[in-house]
Design a protein that fits this description.
By secondary structure, the protein is of the alpha/beta class. The chain has eleven helices and 29 strands.
Length: 454
C-alpha cells in the first residue's frame, strides 16, 4: 500500500473459512474494519499473495482464488457485491474506492489457443494469463465480466452485463465522459508507457531552427533583433502528434522517438532501422514508417547512384518490415506525400506518377507483412485542389517539404487512422502470455503487494 499499515493475517472482523485456505496465513493480509462473509470461498495457493485493504466489504456467495505465484491486491474502501468471482493467476489489482456490484467476474487467465487442439484447465502450464488493473474510483456494474490484459481507468463506469476485453479510459463509460467520484486520485501506481518510433525521410524529420529566445511568450526578442540559432529540433507532424497524444491521454506516458533523416532513401532507412536495433535494442509498441520520395527524386535530380529503383525499393521495404516485425507490436506504413512545384509542371507530373507506383508497392508489401497502410496522398492532393490557386504555396514550404498546413493534414490523417483502428487502445492492453512467462513479465507490477514489501 502507499502508506505503512499494520499486518493483520486474519482480523477479528474478517471471517475467513479455513476449508479453502492455503496452509500459510502469512500469504494473506487483511486490513482493519473489513467485512468478509461466512460463506466466502477463499483459496490462496502456496506462493500466492492476497492483500485486502481497510473497510472492504464482500457480499455473500463470493469466491476468491489466488493461484501459485499470483497476487490479488484490493485497496481501501472497496465494496464488492454478492456472488462475485475473482481468480488471479498472474495478478489483479483493485484500487482504492472502487465498487464492484453483484455477480462480477474478474479472471486474468484463459486456456491457450484452441488452434493447437488443447482445451486446458486453470492449473495447466498451457494456460495463458495477463493482469487486470481496476484504477481508483472505478465502478463495475452487475454481471460484468472482465478478462485478462485490461485496465479499467480511474473513475470509469462499466455498465451492467458487459464483457470487458479491452482497456477502458479513465473517467469514461463507453465513449461518454462521466463525472469523477470522491476518489479523484489519478496518479497511477505503474504508469503505462507506449514507445513509438517514427522512421522516414525529411517529411518525418522536419528539422526547425530553435532558440530559447523564441520559445517564451513572455520574453520574445524585439522585432528586427538578431537571434542565435542554438540547435535544430525535429518538429513537424511527429512533434504535433506527440503533443496531441499526451494532451488527450495524460494518464499514459508517450515515448515518441523521431528517427527521420533528411535525404534518406529506402536503402538508408532500412539500414537506420537495423542500426537502431543494434545500438538501443528498443522494443516498440508502434512504429510509423515512410520512405520512397528520395528514391524517386534522386533520379530526376540526375543523382543516379543514389536513386533506388522500384524493385530494390520493394526489397528494402520488405526488409524493414521484417526487421521491425520481430520487436514491434503494431506497424503503420505511411504513404509518401506528392511532389509540389519543385520542377516545371510536366516534370512534377512525371515524378508523381512514378512516386505513386512506389506507394502502391509499399501498400502491397505492408499487407503482406501484417502492417497497416495509411494513404495521406489523397487528402493532401484534395487540400491543394480545394485551396485553389495558392494551395501549392500553402501545403508545401518548397515543393517537397511540408508547411505547417501540410503537416496538419498529415497529423489529422494519422490521428483519425489511429482512432479508427483502435491502435492505441489495443496497445494499452496487456497481451496474454503463457502463465510462467506471464508471472516473470508481469510479476514486477505487483512486487509492492508481496509479503516482503508489506
Amino acid at each position: 500500500m502507499d502508506r505503512e499499515r499494520e499486518h493483520h493475517p486474519l482480523t477479528p472482523l474478517a471471517l475467513v473459512p479455513t476449508g479453502g485456505l492455503s496452509d500459510s496465513t502469512e500469504a494473506i493480509d487483511i486490513g482493519r474494519y473489513s467485512d468478509l462473509p461466512d460463506d466466502l470461498v477463499l483459496d490462496v495457493a502456496p506462493g500466492g499473495r492476497l492483500t485486502i485493504g481497510e473497510r472492504v466489504s464482500i457480499g455473500p456467495g463470493s469466491t476468491i482464488r489466488v493461484h501459485r505465484g499470483a497476487t490479488l491486491a484490493i485497496g481501501d474502501d472497496v465494496p464488492i457485491g454478492e456472488s462475485t468471482f475473482i481468480s488471479a493467476m498472474v495478478g489483479i489489482r483493485i484500487g482504492d474506492g472502487c465498487a464492484l456490484s453483484d455477480e462480477v467476474v474478474l479472471r486474468d487467465h484463459r486456456p491457450r489457443s484452441v488452434g493447437d487442439g488443447f482445451a486446458g484447465t486453470p492449473g495447466d502450464s498451457r494456460v495463458e494469463a495477463a493482469p487486470i488493473f481496476v484504477e481508483p474510483g472505478a465502478t463495475i456494474a452487475a454481471e460484468v465480466t472482465v478478462t485478462g490484459g485490461v485496465r479499467i481507468g480511474a473513475n470509469a463506469l462499466v455498465g451492467g452485463h458487459a464483457v470487458v476485453s479491452r482497456s477502458v479510459a479513465p473517467r469514461s463509460v463507453g465513449a461518454t465522459n462521466v463525472r469523477g467520484s470522491a476518489h479523484t486520485r489519478t496518479a497511477l501506481e505503474d504508469r503505462r508507457t507506449l514507445t513509438i518510433g517514427c522512421f522516414g525521410t525529411s517529411i518525418t524529420e522536419h528539422f526547425e531552427a530553435f532558440s530559447p529566445q523564441m520559445a517564451c511568450q513572455a520574453g520574445l526578442p524585439p522585432v528586427g533583433s538578431t537571434v542565435t540559432v542554438e540547435s535544430w529540433q525535429r518538429r513537424g507532424w511527429v512533434h504535433r502528434l506527440a503533443l496531441a497524444l499526451r494532451a488527450a491521454r495524460p494518464h499514459v506516458t508517450f515515448d515518441v522517438r523521431n528517427h527521420g533523416e533528411g535525404g534518406a532513401t529506402s536503402r538508408d532507412i532500412a539500414s537506420l532501422v537495423a542500426a537502431d536495433r543494434a545500438t538501443t535494442g528498443t522494443d516498440y509498441d508502434l512504429v510509423v514508417a515512410e520512405m520512397g520520395i528520395n528514391d524517386v527524386w534522386r533520379r530526376f535530380q540526375g543523382r543516379l547512384s543514389e536513386a533506388v529503383d522500384l524493385q530494390e525499393y520493394t526489397r528494402n521495404m520488405a526488409r524493414l518490415l521484417k526487421e521491425l516485425g520481430g520487436y514491434t507490436r503494431r506497424i503503420v506504413v505511411l504513404a509518401q506525400t506528392p511532389f509540389g512545384p519543385v520542377h516545371d509542371p510536366v516534370t512534377v507530373t512525371e515524378m508523381n506518377v512514378e512516386l505513386a507506383r512506389y506507394n502502391a508497392a509499399a501498400q502491397e508489401v505492408a499487407v503482406a507483412h501484417g502492417a497497416l497502410f495509411l494513404d495521406v496522398w489523397t487528402p493532401l492532393t484534395a487540400a491543394v485542389r480545394l485551396l485553389g490557386s495558392d494551395g501549392t504555396d500553402r501545403v508545401w514550404s518548397d515543393g517537397v517539404h511540408l508547411s505547417e498546413l501540410g503537416d496538419t493534414v498529415v497529423l489529422q490523417q494519422v490521428e483519425r487512422f489511429l482512432a479508427e483502428h483502435r491502435i492505441l487502445e489495443d496497445l494499452l492492453d496487456y497481451p496474454f502470455l503463457e502463465r510462467e512467462r506471464a508471472l516473470a513479465v508481469y510479476g514486477p507490477l505487483f512486487a509492492r503487494h508481496r509479503l516482503a514489501d508489506v
